[in-house]
Amino acid sequence: MSTAGTATTPARGSLGRILRLGATRVGYETRVYFRTPDSVFFTFLFPFIMLGIFTAAFGAAGNIGTAPDGSGGISVGAYYLPGMLAAGMLLSGVQNLSVDIAGEKSDGTLKRLGGTPLSPLSYFMGKIGQVLVTGILQAGLLLLVARFLLDIELPSEPEKWLTFAWVFLFGVITCAFLGIALSALPRSGKSATAVVIPIVLVLQFISGVYLQFYVLPEWMQNIASLFPLKWMAQGMRAVFLPEGFASLEPSGSFDLPLVALNLAVWLGVGLVLSRLTFRWIRRDS
Question: What is the rounded distance in angstroms from the CA atom of residue 120 to the CA atom of residue 107?
Answer without folding.
Answer: 18
